[in-house]
Amino acid sequence: HTVPNQTDGTLALEDIAAAIRPDNPHFPISRLICLENTHNRCGGVPLTVEYTRQVGELAERNSLKFHIDGARIFNAAVALGVSSAELVAPADSVMICFSKALCAPVGSALCGNEEFIRRARRMRKQLGGGMRQAGVLAAAGIVALESMVDRLADDHTRARLLADGLRKIQGLSLETEIPPTNMVYIQFTPQATINATTLVEVLAGKGIKVSLIGANRMRLVVHHWIDDKAVEYTVESFRQVLGCG
């Protein structure tokens, strides 16, 4: 059952409660609440410790499991100035990703108690999952955890620099005045001289990858390989393509 997001990435607690099915044979049985932190489509906004605690309490009161999609949980922790452990403490299970902000070539990890992981391993095998000689990938994950978390603040700073440059370009509008983490969402205004599809294609030819989400919404993500010069180059490329350079 999908519950609509609020603009800050949260699910309203009353909406979650209303979505829990009654004990009725005509309905499927509600078993799980899932949250994403940070929330991608809401601009990379982090969900707070307090909000996560409230959702955990709601899940416990209703005998539901609570899972957090923590693909960018370390971005959330750095942005909020808390530990990732605090952000996931109320959850029964958490997925973390090594290949997004932490820049490993591949890899994710599922976390939970011993019995949960035992069952997850069996289900993975049933579905054909698993890898042999995966130590080289695990090594990359260790490097990601040990050396990439603290530097995420640099990505957040550069996302704000990117936003500062883009907001000055005619034809563009920022969805969030100050990006909360490493994502910058922009939309076209009526003053734009070309359409979003053309813009994305031309920028791709300049080595700049922009995600087009819908007809008019675009996402840019800052990561380890984006330095200050790359931010400047991106802003200048937008200026040129939109006829402002």
TrEMBL record:
Originating species: marine sediment metagenome
Keyword Amino-acid biosynthesis: no
Keyword annotations of the record: Lyase, Pyridoxal phosphate
Family membership: Belongs to the threonine aldolase family.
Domain Aromatic amino acid beta-eliminating lyase/threonine aldolase, chain residue ranges per copy: 2-187
Gene Ontology CC annotation, any one: cytosol
Database matches in PANTHER family: L-THREONINE ALDOLASE, L-THREONINE ALDOLASE-RELATED
Cofactors that this protein relies on: pyridoxal 5'-phosphate
GO terms (BP aspect): glycine biosynthetic process; L-threonine catabolic process
Name of this chain's protein: Aromatic amino acid beta-eliminating lyase/threonine aldolase domain-containing protein
One GO molecular-function entry: L-allo-threonine aldolase activity
Lyase keyword on record: yes
